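thread: overnight batch results

M.L. [08:02]
morning all. the overnight job finished for the chain we discussed friday. pasting input first so we're all looking at the same thing
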Amino acid sequence: MAVLPTIIPIFPLPNLVLFPGQSVPLHIFEPRYREMVADVADAHGIVGMMLLKGEEQRDSQAYPDVFEVGCAGRIDGLIKLPDGRYDMALVGVGEFRVAREIRERPYRQAEVRWCPVPREALDCDAETMDALREMLFSYLGAPAQDAWRTIVEQRGLRGAELINFLCFHLDVSPLEKQTMLEAMADRVDCLLDVLAFKLEERKRGPAGPGGSSDPLQ
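M.L. [08:03]
and the structure it wrote out:
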């Protein structure tokens, strides 16, 4: 990984957890985040994506609580619109942990400790690949079979690229995705645990404690 800055802007959202190698389109319209983009676009181009904690805090505080671990992305395909807003993509570059927040700008910044997961930690042997495939097929049915053919058999995704792709795109709650992000080197096992939980949840049906019969949100 290229040398990354130790102080980065952080961009908290209530429903997005970024993973390394994954790309997310963003529309930047709030003045403080327009300033953020302008400040970093011609510098290191790194923005730390973080998940907000708690529904009740989102509008009541200038600095609502965020989880300690996030994933930073590099700005790509930046377009400045005539009214000052931005369209851009953010491509995940690595996990980080917040050491302390810095509140010197209208937007939030943090001193961070980078903690990227070694690629080999997310390698999957044949047995794990088989288990992952079968659980995805059981959970999502035909759409998962089509997706598996495309991303694994045709595109050849394996290891970290496959695991981070699945963690990012799997239709589970942001909190479950945050759990997988924070699992770091144990992300493969955490992904399998989340899938096992969702399958058990479906078996219980809507009458079970916290259960849901719908695998898609």
